[in-house]
Sequence to fold (72 residues):
Amino acid sequence: MSVKKQWKDLSPLGKCAIMLAGAVQIALQAAALRDLSTRAPLEVNGPRKVWVAASFINFAGPIAYFMKGRRK
Fold:
């Protein structure tokens, strides 16, 4: 049986890594949502609402949008 670590049990490096990953996730999502809000409908592959919803999927959603959701 595994024991879950609490925040206070993590090393300073572990805490820093979690905070950095969270900051990157928020930055990616904010960039994707901002890009979606400024693009014309013809510049987006698929429905805009689907890409907005996908942006809330950790890391994968915003990255998928930048790779497949935008028309060049």
Q: What stands out?
A: The mean pLDDT is 94.
